[in-house]
Amino acid sequence: MRTVRVAIVGAGPAGIYAAAGLAAAGPEHGVRVLVDLFDRLPTPYGLVRYGTAPDHQRIKEVVVALRAALAGPGIRFFGNVEYGSDLKLAELRQCYHAIVVATGAAADRPLPIPGIDLPGSYGGADFVAWYNGHPDVPRDWPLTARSVAVLGAGNVALDVARMLAKPVAEQAATEIPDNVARGLAGNAVRDVHLFARRGPADAKFTPLELRELAESPSVDVIVDPVGAEVTAEEEASIGRSRQRRTVLRTLLDWVGREPTGAPRRIHLHFRSAPVAVLGGGWVEGLRTERTEPGPDGMINFTGDHRDWPVQAVYRAIGYRSTALPDVPFDDAGGVVPGTAGRVVDLDQLAVPGLYATGWVRRGPVGLIGHTKSDAAETVGALLADLEVLPEPDAPAPEAIIELLRVKKIDFTTLAEWDRLDAHEIALGQASGRQRTKVVSRIAMINGGRDT
User: Domain 2-105+321-412 belongs to what topology?
Assistant: First the structure.
């Protein structure tokens, strides 16, 4: 049976699902597929580990299935290997018949309004990375603001608002890192204002995330009645979507409800588009403009402005993928361009042996189920191209290991991740947590030790 070697760049859900699909389906096409996953982080799982809030353990349970897939026959994991600096595309082509890009989307979408770059204005993705213990972000976060604005109407905006408002004592049993617990203990926030450009019928929250917003006894959730109106057209646009109806019903139930006197409050403001961040040397306020729905489904700006006295602004309007060296990239769409998982060049011609899957391919939309089906399509395209894949010069499985060692890359393997995983769980158990994340990259590579 012919052996086909595939490199996957990115070991989040998209990359792992693609690896498992290739290894499983290869024999049906008369080949044995050997897959190597590379990730710039020492650990696998991508945004499941570094994009999901510490108190969302139910969502993180998907790592059980992902770990089982990583242990499948013919699959290897190489962590702490960064594409573009440690390994280039030409070097991967020397060892593999095909390369699959699965780097996801972890950067913040830009918001081009005046003042957005003032100190005190942050990208939501950076804050998410901080409270999840990402090794490449600062260990400290400024949490001196008493009133904060969060911009966005999706689950990331809810996570940011909840993490800012929820007392650290209520998160003590999660996998929150020690440095984050210390930072949140000194959090001065009292009011978090979340602003959405559209009305409540167009909110992109999931019902579970929204309900979790109000579960803390220390936080009142208040929906501003101004902007919470729902037109007949908006009601009709929901159709039979049970999820959207549940979200809308929950939001309308919260409209104008009386505060309980909780020490912290989350205010939801709809039809309030941010148009400027105000301040001199630091954020001093946010200016919003009232919007109304237009007949074409777009929003109209009314000219009705309001200034909000906030001392910090968090932008959570969506993630964006970043370009990769030597890989075509559609900067306007923020994706690697392609058809059915095949990467295409400027002339819309398929690049031989180059594929993409996940958010870097389709944009940052959809949940884990969408990622799995997306990976299946890319796997199908690659296996359909078996006869035309370029032949590598050094296809032996040992070749890539020799190359990494020659380059002095201190890569991690699945066995080393398992040791770190066990170490973090043990640390957590010692302090009554589900796990305590190791944050230092050096310690992650060394199984929890800083030396």
Answer: Rossmann fold (3.40.50)
Residues 6 or more apart in contact with residue 224 via CB below 8 angstroms: 255, 267, 268, 269, 270
HSE-CB for 413 with a 13 A CA cutoff: 6
Q: Do domains 2-105+321-412 and 109-319 have the same CATH topology?
A: no
For 217-271, strand residue ranges (E) read 219-223, 264-269
User: pLDDT tens digits for 343-393?
Assistant: 999 999 999 999 999 999 999 887 777 789 999 999 999 999 999 999 999
User: What is the architecture, at CATH level 2, of domain 109-319?
Assistant: 3-Layer(bba) Sandwich (3.50)
Amino acid at 441: R
Q: Tell me the HSE value of 302 on the side-chain side, using a 13 A CA sphere.
A: 16
Per-residue pLDDT reduced to its tens digit, 253-287:
999 788 899 999 999 999 999 999 999 999 999 99
Best CA proximity match to 420, nearest among 449, 397, 393: 449
| Domain boundaries along the sequence of the chain | 2-105+321-412, 109-319
What end-to-end distance do the CA atoms of the chain give, in Å?
A: 45
**What is this structure's pTM?**
0.94
